[in-house]
Amino acid sequence: MAFARLSVIVSLALGAAQLANAALTKRVTCADGNVTANKACCALFPVVAKMQSDLFDGAECGEEAHSALRLSFHDAIGFSIHGGKGGGADGSILLFNATETAFHANGGIDDITAGQFPVFQESGLTPGDFVHLAAAVGTANCPGAPRLQFLFGRPAPKAPAPDLTVPEPTDSVTAILARFADAGFNAQEVVALLSSHTIAAADVVDVTIPGTPFDSTVGTFDTQVFLEVLLKGNSFPGNGSQPGEVLSPLKGEMRLQSDFALSQDSRTACFWQQMVNDQTRMQTQFKAAMAKLQVLGQNTRNMVDCSDVVPVPASFAGPIKFPATFSQKDVQQACPQLRFPAISTVAGPAPTLAPVPGS
Description:
Blueprint lengths: L1 H23 L3 E2 L5 E2 L7 H11 L8 H14 L15 H4 L1 H4 L9 H14 L3 H14 L10 E2 L20 H11 L3 H7 L7 E2 L9 E2 L10 H5 L16 E2 L8 E2 H8 L4 H7 L3 H15 L10 E2 L54
Antiparallel strand pairs: 1-2, 3-8, 4-5, 6-7
Helix pairs in contact: 3-7, 9-13
Family: Belongs to the peroxidase family. Ligninase subfamily.
Cofactor: heme b; Ca(2+)
Main location: secreted
């Protein structure tokens, strides 16, 4: 009898597990043939296709993809866990673009808002859903990126975010960490979010050199930026000539003052160094930090997980390498308690980086 009862219990447990797994893997086939976990997400597949064709030049990891990711950050960070600083990830930067693009910290955002607005108007989405879906889709076009989460169902924004909520490259580490803490992020999450700089370029930090990349592999979502910010060496004319910009040892590369300061500060230096040549760590931490950022100010209980509409990024071929002529001896290490990873060097002469096309 005991064995019989045990057999029944085991059978019931297995049945419950099978039902749970079936619920987790339930799929819906949309009218256009796409498959998703929730019927509400079917409406997003045509929008994703439109974004790829009309915004991202056929799914390229280009200037528009970089700018879409930047736009999502500048939209969402206008928020405080203490209240009184905007609606967070609500798309206010798109709907009230005339107001928010005039803020000093949002310099250069006007191009991507102008590019996104007509596509947004055709999409049927709220501004917040459009901005944050575009960020996830654009990022997915970059090899090595994580597949970002996307929750669907943001209500329309009520008002523009206030000024002075976006950290600037001239800010001190203390000011940057305080602003992020006010939005609910710790120091490790700040460093994780800066992974976005691996596919970024600057247009307005120094207007004389638009499209200047932050690392030598700007079309790949890798940890190269964390390595190159740590390099010391000779500088070149035009590097470090404007507020917020510091000397870079790579010709044609920009190094933000805030990135360098964070890489050297005792509160963040070890988090920074841990990212170097650890693609999995960077992907995991960036994805988690972005999942938090992109729902700031939102009631996630009223939202639907439509992450499966986001394209799957190509994998990272890796590993990263020191740019030609650089090696371990050129690293300005600020976290000596951690062993610096062994990294080889690209063969050849010192590189000169080209501006990012379309900037």
